[in-house]
TrEMBL record:
GO terms for cellular component: plasma membrane. Belongs to the G-protein coupled receptor 4 family. It holds the Pfam family STE3. GO terms for biological process: pheromone-dependent signal transduction involved in conjugation with cellular fusion. This is Pheromone receptor. It comes from the Eukaryota.
Amino acid sequence: MGHPALAPVSFISMALVLIPLPWHLRARNVATVSTFLWLAVCNLYHFVNAVLWKGNVDIRAEVYCDISTSLYVAATIALPAAALCIARHLANVSSPNRPPPNLKDKRNRIIFEIVMCVIFPFVYRAVVLISQNHRFLIFEDLGCTISVYISWPTIIVFYFPPVVLALVTAVYSGLAVRWLMQRRAQFRDLFPSASGMSSSTYFRLIALAITTTLGTLGFTLYVLIRVIASSGAIVWVSWDFIHTDYWHILQFPTAVVSPSRMAVMLAMWSVVPIQSCACFVFFGFGEEAMAEYRKYWRWVCRVILRRDANPGQSSGGNLPSFILRSSKVSRDHHKVEMSTTVSRAAKRQRDDDSLFGDRLDVEAAKDVSPSYASFETRSQSLRPYTPPLDRDSQIESAGVSVRSIHVSGPSSSVESEGEK
């Protein structure tokens, strides 16, 4: 009997956990972003395994198994470490004895969270090599997974660190809730002055930290007790003894796996989708999420459906955060091109005037600017009024010699009768 739901559940969980990621990236919350990314990596790992080893235990994609199992082991410590960072930050925010954070405090917090959520997981993965007795194992439908030799060093380096982090997270979470309840009278003024987060974000973050803590503690302690009970005497022999068959890859079809062991493995597998759904429930229906969903819908209506979702509103600010505002850029680029064209044409016109005298090419000006005709009309309307000359004045002015009156064209002129 196979497990056809593993692949679609993993894919849906990965999509759900990635939905709230953009606005947390903008907020630069390292611990929360790390939680989403590590869960996405774990879901991707489950999805690929379920596809490649559906109904088989063939040895394939060995490099992928080396990389993916290492990332999965790192994620087992990265998730409780991220929960610890979240709870620690929330406790500091609500602490009555802590002054408002300055730039140095924020920088130190970011460095601490990067170390705990990124660097420490890979150090943990390197230490686990002490107890890893096989390169990896392959289970039918579940794919490749890590193999460790059960001994006291394994319990210390593999099982204890997540439990310790979960306990510390529980302490910080309790302090955060306690201090928040003590300062509930100053609740509205607490967040803007301390960290800029809203009360809704605070409660969702503390819920995420508590959920991760309970899941890590409950699951790790259950597996640890089961392993100790089933392994009998746990002794460490030597490094050479444990790593003798390191390069031997073991394969386990469903027929040779006991139902109780398969139930435990499926329970281990289900932890990641459950945490992913919890993250989406906590952050997929908040104020930031709803605002982002509205932007998605407006973009779909404008670009795909070719209609305006809100006819009474302008389109500015309605694009999702991951989409380049190409229409605005195109309009701005068009304006720059038109301005550049007009400027270049005007410069050429000034050069021609300086070269050929005071000639004005009216037709060129009309071609450069479509609004020239309206400008000329306005200019004529602003000229001072000149009364018409009587007959004697016209005869008197006929003796004046006008060399050339430029009208249009490079050298057109009219000679007066007096010159002839």
